[in-house]
Amino acid sequence: xxxxxxxxxxxxxxxxxxxxxxxxxxxxxxxxxxxxxxxxxxxxxxxxxxxxxxxxxxxxxxxxxxxxxxxxxxxxxxxxxxxxxxxxxxxxxxxxxxxxxxxxxxxxxxxxxxxxxxxxxxxxxxxxxxxxxxxxxxxxxxxxxxxxxxxxxxxxxxxxxxxxxxxxxxxxxxxxxxxxxxxxxxxxxxxxxxxxxxxxxxxxxxxxxxxxxxxxxxxxxxxxxxxxxxxxxxxxxxxxxxxxxxxxxxxxxxxxxxx
Length: 259
Prior knowledge:
By secondary structure, this protein is an all-beta fold. The chain has a domain at 67-231. Helix content is 0%, strand content 55%. The chain has strands spanning 6-11, 14-22, 25-40, 46-53, 56-65, 70-79, 100-111, 114-125, 132-142, 146-157, 188-199, 204-217, 222-231. Strands 1, 2, 3, 4, 5, 6, 7, 8, 9, 10, 11, 12 and 13 form a 13-stranded antiparallel sheet that branches. The chain starts with 5 loop residues before the first strand and ends in a 28-residue tail after the last strand.
């Protein structure tokens, strides 16, 4: 690269869905496509690229408490659908190539229009990646049809690890562009950002967000931003069968007059 600095840009359209299938239970999934390019910063020359499916996520939630403070337990899994091996220096990977299993506990409290949330968790990682602790926190203010949220997130690997032939001090895997943004086996990082949303109706909304990942150890410093179009569907239908009686099934008290 003749000493020129390079940058990675990922474009990631995705579909996220969550479905409540029983009292207190819901299941969710996230499927994504990734287009990744490595360019020189000053001249914009393309150095490497890759596109295809990214890793998929599946999860389940259970509401432990439905009154404030809200408490929800979650378990989730990463399915390695993305390409994690590059054969030439002109290729970029689109996935991690390993299985992850995580657990989180979501705790939320509300004070008028202000909501507070904190979510500690743990991520068990396989395939040479280090198990890590997770922490997310957020504060949200609700308006009539809109909301704004500030959030922070962090991941802390419990041990130092690297995928061969790279080391914890020299991340030189093909397909990464030499950046810990890809295939980081033991990241220690912190990020923060903001999200704003507007509800056009009960079933349609839009969100926009921006966040910065601050460089820690064995991780990259990067900015991410995007928009989400949100649709909510209520598939529940009440009992529409005609009732035989329009009053509760019990004997009606009859008033009788006796002369």
